[in-house]
Design brief:
- The protein has 683 residues and is an alpha+beta fold.
- Among the domains are: 118 residues, Beta-Lactamase; 122 residues, PAS domain (Beta-Lactamase); 173 residues, Phosphatase 2c, domain 1 (4-Layer Sandwich), CATH 3.60.40.10.
- It contains 20 helices and 20 strands.
- A 5-stranded antiparallel β-sheet has the order 2-1-5-4-3, sandwiched between helices. Strands 7-6-10-9-8 form a 5-stranded antiparallel β-sheet.
- Helix 2 runs antiparallel to helix 13, helix 13 crosses helix 14 and helix 15 packs antiparallel against helix 16.
- It is elongated.
Length: 683
């Protein structure tokens, strides 16, 4: 019967979202504010569903009681209205059959009317002849009524031998009234209609609409009807429902005849509606109620409908073949008690929350003191004063917190001292990184006859791999090497190896013979091996080295591979197979007597030399799978490298390794060098 949602499953998600949004917007800064807000939100999450349920339950109970009360009161009023209409029709019918009235002796009729007035002081009487002329009456009749009485429907109904009832805007006085008529048969007819006989006159009885409640004996019923448990107080606006007066709150009782005339017997507020004809009143806001009354049954019942957008409760009952009684009350008024009770409940809950908040504020103020003390100590830590301490005299949780803060301060102080001790080393490592960056040649790698691209990617801050490119006359020397192990010690040995190699290549004492670069490479590698073995052999540090020399105009490449990963030569000509250059001797720095041979590989225009350290083929995926030489060979297939520059080939390999090792940790240095012989315009 409610007009709003009461389904908790629909209401709760909206409540939870509203509470969550409130928490996000509030952003409390203090512990006290957070606790108070948490209590309010927590209690709200309980109170709101509880209040919705309570309001729904109370509203339904009140409406149920109001419906029952309306039905009980409606039955009483219907009975009283039935008795009144029965009294009206029986009285005028008996009076019309009395010998005094039938003889139409004016003096005796007036005496009869006088006696009737003493019994029913609110009723007026009149005797008419069949033409509508007044024979006698208890009060002077309004001129307009005397003139029109013969044409009134209720008068014509009496001439047909039936009881007639009508509502007239003017009766004996200027007031609107209910008019009841009965046929009068002459004295010779013994007051009983016989077939073919016509009335000799018409007896009329009237009751002013303003007197209908008193005349019917129901003047106290409206008060009992409107002052029930859930009705509005007497101090509020008029309790009578009156749509035409824009009064949509209250109660009203009306009687409706079979033609649709309306009579409001208990109040005078809506008497103007009684003067409207059936078609006229159906064009007003009362139309839904009139239509419901015309459908009334002998057994009364309560129903609901909407008029002018307002929900109403109706009790309807047919009290006779001619009349129905309607008791109507607005539904919203019935719910005001539930609203008031809900307001009272919410007010009490708010008072409770305020009291709880005050208690929380008092407790938090006391509890916040040790927290503020802890915060002040931590603030000192933030300033760098790690010697700040809290005096601990408590054995509870706060005391444990203070002990932990003091212990944290001690550990931070130790960490700071340790960090200060490492500051020099860190600075040295940073300097070493900058020096190593200078070792790596990154500009002017390519020459007129060749294009070179290289990349160095250390596993740690400092790497032990390196590459070098030296252009000397018409010869270009390339070097790629890998010192054993990783980190700072290996990087130091790398700098020694690189410095010795650059010095040896630059000190050309072999003259300008054709095989000058071959002798130079051999002397360089063997000299460095002897030096490292004699001076640093005890450190067990060695390096794998690949060195190659390319002379302009030749179609071959001279190289020494000292224990290094064998580079790949990718031929530009499909008639010649690709080649993996073989090893020429052991790693440098292990065996003092080691001998290194210089070998030659075909290397013409368009050919690509791909050099790498073991960090490439050993690169692991997250599952532990190595990148491997086979995957590299497939990637460097002639079809994948043909027409590409050295840089494009390098980028292609780096992208493949990165994809293979994505999210996996790099555990070894990775260095790549790609050299491609340019094609001359005459090639």
């Amino acid at each position: 019967m409610l007009d709003w949602p009461t389904d908790m499953e629909l209401a709760m998600p909206r409540v939870e979202k509203a509470l969550e949004a409130t928490w996000r917007r509030a952003k409390p800064n203090s512990l006290r504010s957070q606790l108070i807000l948490s209590v309010w939100l927590g209690m709200a999450s309980v109170f709101i569903p509880f209040n919705l349920y309570t309001f729904s339950r109370d509203s339904e109970n009140i409406l149920r009681k109001e419906t029952q009360r309306l039905e009980d009161q409606g039955q009483i009023i219907s009975y009283l209205m039935y008795r009144w209409t029965l009294n009206l029709t029986n009285l005028i019918e008996l009076s019309a059959q009395s010998e005094t009235v039938r003889k139409e002796d004016t003096r005796k009729v007036e005496e009869y009317f006088a006696r009737a007035k003493r019994l029913y002081p609110k009723r007026e009487w009149a005797l008419f002849d069949t033409s509508g002329l007044v024979v006698t009456s208890t009060k002077t009749m309004n001129y307009n009524l005397r003139k029109e009485i013969g044409r009134k429907p209720f008068f014509k109904q009496a001439l047909k031998g039936e009881i007639g009832i009508d509502i007239s805007p003017q009766c004996f006085s200027e007031e609107a009234c209910v008019m009841v008529s009965s046929p009068v048969y002459g004295a010779t007819q013994k007051g009983i209609k016989k077939k073919g006989e016509s009335p000799s006159g018409v007896l009329v009885m009237t009751v002013d609409l303003t007197d209908s409640a008193e005349d019917s004996g129901t003047q106290g019923e409206f008060e009992r009807l409107t002052l029930g448990e859930s009705r509005i107080s007497e101090k509020e606006v008029d309790r009578t429902l009156s749509f035409q007066n824009k009064q949509v709150r209250g109660t009203e009782v009306l009687m409706v005849d079979i033609e649709g005339h309306a009579l409001f017997p208990l109040t005078n507020v809506n008497d103007e509606m009684s003067l409207l004809g059936p078609s006229q009143i159906l064009n007003t806001a009362w139309a839904p109620i009139i239509k419901q009354a015309l459908k009334a049954e002998k057994r009364g019942r309560v129903s609901e409908l909407v008029a002018t957008g307002e929900p109403l409760l109706l009790y309807t009952e047919r009290i006779s073949p001619y009349w129905s009684v309607v008791v109507v009350a607005d539904k919203k008024t019935s719910l005001e008690m539930a609203n008031n009770e809900a307001k009272t409940l919410v007010e009490r809950q708010l008072i409770f929350l305020v009291l709880v908040s005050l208690m929380i504020a008092a407790v938090c103020q006391q509890a916040a003191k040790p927290v503020l003390k802890a915060a002040a100590t931590l603030k000192e830590f933030g300033k760098g004063n790690f010697e700040a301490r809290i005096n601990v005299s408590r054995k509870d949780e706060i005391g444990t917190l203070f002990d932990n803060i003091n212990e944290t301060g001690s550990k931070l102080l130790g960490m700071v001292n340790e960090r200060l001790g490492r500051a020099v080393t860190d600075k040295q490592i940073e300097t070493a990184k900058e020096i190593q960056k200078e070792f790596i040649v990154r500009e002017q790698l390519s020459g007129k006859d060749i294009e070179i691209a290289a990349d160095f990617d250390p596993a740690y801050e400092i790497g032990a791999d390196w590459y070098d490119v030296i252009h000397k006359g018409e010869v270009t020397y390339i070097v790629i090497a890998d010192v054993c192990d990783k980190g700072i010690p290996s990087a130091l040995f790398m700098s020694v190896f690189r410095s010795l190699m650059r010095y040896c290549i630059g000190d050309n004492r072999a003259g300008n013979e054709q095989d000058n670069e071959r002798e130079l490479m051999k002397n360089t590698i063997q000299g460095i091996n002897v030096y490292m073995s004699e001076n640093h052999g005890s450190s067990a540090m060695f390096a794998t080295v690949f060195m190659a020399a390319y002379r302009k105009g030749e179609k071959s490449l001279s190289y020494i591979n000292a224990g290094h990963e064998s580079p790949l030569v990718i031929r530009d000509r499909e008639t010649e197979p690709n080649e993996r250059l073989e090893t020429c001797g052991p790693a440098v720095g292990i065996f003092k007597e080691a001998v290194y041979a210089v070998k030659t590989a075909e290397y013409g225009p368009g050919d690509v030399l791909f050099c790498f350290t073991d960090g490439l083929v050993d690169a692991r995926s997250t599952s532990g799978d190595s990148f491997g030489i086979d995957r590299l060979k497939q990637l460097l297939d002639r079809q994948n490298t043909k027409g590409k520059s050295a840089q494009e080939i390098l980028d292609q390999v780096n992208a493949a390794v990165e994809k293979h090792s994505i999210d996996a940790e790099q555990f070894d240095d990775k260095t790549l060098l790609v050299m491609k012989a340019r094609k001359s315009s005459t090639t």
